Structure formats: structure tokens, C-alpha cells
Amino acid sequence: MSEFERTVVAPALRNLETFVIGREALAFDALPSTNTLLREHAGQGAAEGLVAVADEQTAGRGRRGRTWTAPPGTSLLLSVLTRPTWLPPTDGFLLTMLAAVALAEAIETTIRMPISLKWPNDLQIDERKLAGILVEVEADRPDRIGWAIIGCGVNVNWQPDAAVGQSATSISAATGQPCDRAVLLQAILRAFDRQYLALRTGRREALRETWLGRLATLGQTVRVDLATESFVGVAESVDQGGGLLVRAADGELRRVLAGDVSVRRAQPGQPET
Ligand code: BTN
Questions:
Q1: Is there an atom of ligand 1 within 6 Å of 52 CB?
Q2: 9, 31, 202, 241 — which has fewest CB within 10 A?
Q3: 272 pLDDT band (50/70/90 cuts)?
């Protein structure tokens, strides 16, 4: 058993006591991407709840085709396989909400600092990105999701500023002390299990309200970067499909989708394009 498995994954799985998430788990010192690995397992019929955790990824993937990099030993890089066949593909954004709420609750319980969300699915502490989520969904029929991989990258014990810019942080940078990754991983798996079972039993509105309650983006002036244009407006709400409704300067309410845009807080004095 490797050092990573012995000190992080095995203690997290001991006495886990979940119903679905983490009943089976795969641990890796290094692999290309936990999401990519679980896509293969999903295609081969693996049961839902399977978790893959890595100490390092050599081809970690972020949203919108970006890469996700983290030095070994510093982060929690994990993916969860779910089979929410009770959800239509149009409700896929609920899985992003589920992941964000589960991660936020687990981190908050562990470090006792408030975590907020930035649309569509960044976790923040003091307005700096602490964790990202990549949900990949496949519909096996037009009316239902066959499987969904929920991938999470949490910056735990490092200072990512130099690598990814001033807008990122980590748990240790925020608290001033190292965080035990085993304790946090167990809290994350338990929170995922709780949220997944709640959603499976129909608690969609409760999840949506909890997610909205953490969303720091609403009411803010944001800059929306589309492929061919950018505009500034006020983020007013999020619709059922997860689209952000932004009131542009000309008064038009525009719907922006996570796949198409990056939303940034508009900075005073920053030129608007
Ligand atoms: C984002 O762009 O904010 C989402 C980042 C998601 C990264 C995680 S790390 C574990 C899992 N495996 C991947 O390749 N990506 C996700």
C-alpha cells in the first residue's frame, strides 16, 4: 500500500458508513484523470457510488476544456460515479448543485470557515477559488441520465497563487494551518452520500434553495465572456436549468449557460469590452 493510500484513502474509508457513495473506491498515486478513469468504468457497467481518488493527475481536466493541475500531496482529486436514471437530462444541473453543496458543507464542517459559491460551480473562501467541479453526464435514453461522473478538485495544502493567479487559494492558505486530507475526504464522501440520497428521494427544491443560499454571484455586477462578445450586467437569478439570468446595461435580461461563458466580477475602473 502506498503512502497516499495508507495515510489518506484508507483512513477516510474506515468507518465511512455511507449507503451509496464510496462503498467501492480506487486509489492512485498518479493517473491521467479520475474523471476519465470513471468514464471507462461507467461504460463497463460499474455500480454507482464508485469513487476514484488520486494524489496526482497528469491530465486533469477542468471546465470548458481547461486543464486542472496540482502538485502531488497537496490536494484532494476525486471523482464519483452516479447513475441517476431517475433524472431527465434537462435536470442535470441539479448534480452540479449537489456537488457544490456537499463539498461546501464538508469543508465548512472540517475547517469552520464559511464557504460560498460562484456560478456555476466554483467554491470560494474570501472570494478566492478553493475548489472546482466537473460534472460529465451521459443520457442512455432521451428522457433520462444513464450515468454522471462528478469530479472535484480541492486545493488543500498549498498556495496555488503563483501557478494559477491571484484568484485562487487553498484550505491551508485560508486557515493558516495544514489540513488532514483523510478527515476532509471522509467528510466529503459522507456529505455526497447525504445529498445524493436526499435528491434521489425527490428533495430538489430543498437542494436548490440551499445552493442558492450559498451563491455569492447574485446581485453582483458581473462580466460575461462569450466566445464572440463580452458584456457587463447584474446577475439577477438562476433558472431551473442552471442558466444565469443577467440584466445587461440596455435592460435586456440575458440567459447565460455555464458551457458558454466565464463570469467574472466586474472590477471598478477595469475597461469593459
Ligand atoms: C473547474 O474547471 O473548476 C473544474 C475542475 C475539476 C477538477 C477535478 S480534479 C478530479 C477530477 N478529475 C479531473 O480530471 N477533473 C476533476
A1: no
A2: 202
A3: very low
The arithmetic mean of pLDDT across residues 145-174, rounded, is 87
Residues paired with 27 in a beta bridge: 53
Query: Residue 12: helix, strand or coil by DSSP?
Result: helix
60 within ligand 1 shell (Cβ under 6 A): yes
Per-residue exposure over 33-54, b if at least 16 CB sit within 10 Å of its own CB, e if not:
bbbbbbbebbeeebebbbbbbb
Are residues 94 and 191 in contact, defined by beta-carbon separation less than 8 angstroms? no
Tell me if 186 CB under 6 Å of ligand 1. no
Q: Is residue 89 reached through a cis peptide bond, with omega within 30 degrees of 0 on the bond before it?
A: no
pLDDT value at residue 266: 75
| The pLDDT value given to residue 160 | 81
List, in order, residues 6 or more apart from 44 with CB less than 8 Å away.
none
